[in-house]
């Protein structure tokens, strides 16, 4: 595959916990602009904000950035990205990175890592990231999604449960140091080919994703592979709440 890649940034106005989130100010700029800047720093060949709200569309356009209005009835950001690919006429082999619109602190290298990992193989139409878990509490936290890999770096399973379970060390002391295995936390950064996106959007939901509330399990359920690139660390969390907004704004002021 070609290493050239596009970035699509899904951005909805209607967040239940933080309405208007993409347009909230961080260090003098709307959050969505910071996210676009991370994509530019990753050397993406094209960046498109995918939105269903005219206010976001107008704000992005007024700043000289590209936005596309998409169907408000999409059930996921993945479906919104697939619509952008159709609108833009991108070829099946084109690599597209899904960059969440509330991740202004994502390391640009991670965006590039996901795209280059996908481009460097031909067994999967999707690549994602993971980082080694260093804190035992994280293994047992259901909000931290774990992933186990095969010998070639493809996902065997994603779960909110502590996988793999260390039979000899976890039952009594939850000792990560004694567990003879490096546990991995999944990082929700995805690179896809357009051809994969089109297949994915035609698949019904799977029972596993309903149980775990993990959309990526649909891919394994339908028999396709997911390449996982291991990166140095889990990035700082994005913006979901007013407290998150203050934390991220403080980071930008310090830098």
TrEMBL record:
Keyword Nucleus: no
Record's subcellular location: Cytoplasm
rRNA processing as UniProt keyword: no
EC primary class: transferase
One annotated GO molecular function: 3-deoxy-manno-octulosonate cytidylyltransferase activity
InterPro entries in UniProt: Cytidylyl_trans, KdsB, Nucleotide-diphossugar_trans
Domain of life where this protein originates: Bacteria
SUPFAM superfamilies to which the protein is assigned, alphabetical: Nucleotide-diphospho-sugar transferases
Gene3D superfamilies xrefs: Spore Coat Polysaccharide Biosynthesis Protein SpsA, Chain A
Coiled coil: none
Catalytic activity: 3-deoxy-alpha-D-manno-oct-2-ulosonate + CTP = CMP-3-deoxy-beta-D-manno-octulosonate + diphosphate
Pathway membership, UniProt: Nucleotide-sugar biosynthesis; CMP-3-deoxy-D-manno-octulosonate biosynthesis; CMP-3-deoxy-D-manno-octulosonate from 3-deoxy-D-manno-octulosonate and CTP: step 1/1
Main location: cytoplasm
A Pfam family matched in the record: CTP_transf_3
E.C. numbers: 2.7.7.38
Keyword terms, alphabetized: Cytoplasm, Lipopolysaccharide biosynthesis, Nucleotidyltransferase, Transferase
Entry function: Activates KDO (a required 8-carbon sugar) for incorporation into bacterial lipopolysaccharide in Gram-negative bacteria.
Family under the similarity heading: Belongs to the KdsB family.
This protein's name: 3-deoxy-manno-octulosonate cytidylyltransferase
Species name: Methylomonas aurea
């Amino acid at each position: 595959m070609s290493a050239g890649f596009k970035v699509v940034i899904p951005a909805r106005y209607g967040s239940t916990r933080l309405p208007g989130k993409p347009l909230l100010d961080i260090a003098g700029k709307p959050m969505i602009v910071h996210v676009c800047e991370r994509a530019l720093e990753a050397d993406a060949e094209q960046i498109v904000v995918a939105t269903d709200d005219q206010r976001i569309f107008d704000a992005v356009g007024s700043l000289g950035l590209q936005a596309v209005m998409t169907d408000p009835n999409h059930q996921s950001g993945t479906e919104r990205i697939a619509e952008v690919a159709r609108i833009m006429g991108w070829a099946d082999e084109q690599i597209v990175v899904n960059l969440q619109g509330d991740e202004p602190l994502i390391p640009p290298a991670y965006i590039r890592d996901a795209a280059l990992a996908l481009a460097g193989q031909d067994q999967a139409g999707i690549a994602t990231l993971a980082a080694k878990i260093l804190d035992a509490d994280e293994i047992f936290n259901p909000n931290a999604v774990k992933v186990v890999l095969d010998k070639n770096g493809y996902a065997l399973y994603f779960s909110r449960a502590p996988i793999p379970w260390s039979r000899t060390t976890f039952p009594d002391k939850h000792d990560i140091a004694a567990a003879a295995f490096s546990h991995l936390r999944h990082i929700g950064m995805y690179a896809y080919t357009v051809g994969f996106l089109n297949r994915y959007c035609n698949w019904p939901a799977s029972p596993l994703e309903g149980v775990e509330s993990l959309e990526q399990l649909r891919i394994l359920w339908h028999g396709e592979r997911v390449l996982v690139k291991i990166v140095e660390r889990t990035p700082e969390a994005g913006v979901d709440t007013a407290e998150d907004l203050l934390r991220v704004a403080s980071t930008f002021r310090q830098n």
